[in-house]
Design brief:
By secondary structure, the chain is of the alpha+beta class. The protein has helices at residues 2-5, 7-24, 49-64, 93-107, 122-126; strands spanning 30-35, 38-42, 79-82, 114-117.
Length: 129
Amino acid sequence: MNDTYGHAVGDTVLIKLAAVLQRACRENDIVMRLGGDEFAMYLPGMPDKAQAESFFKRLFTQIDKISIPEMQGEKINVSLGASLCSDKDRATFDTLYREADAAMYESKKIVGNHAIIYSDLPQARQTPL
């Protein structure tokens, strides 16, 4: 965005995207900006794949509604990676972060808004990170 439209538009994209992420979350969810154009979300109580996919769909619908005049109709695309766990899994933050990051990099290979859950990746079935 910055290279094409300038830093002011890039900042507007980040602000509008952050607002959509915050609105999509429940009271106990956490949204944080990691840096640049990367965000992380912690959504406790969402260990179910179907529930997560429904959330992704709602989130992408809201992201599609973002309109920035300077972008002349171009849409914002988000590559999302997720790692799911239940309370009984006792996964560490580091493990969940690495898994979500690996899934996100796979998601970036697909044009447009897309989400991949780590457990759906072939390597996830072989050995955990």
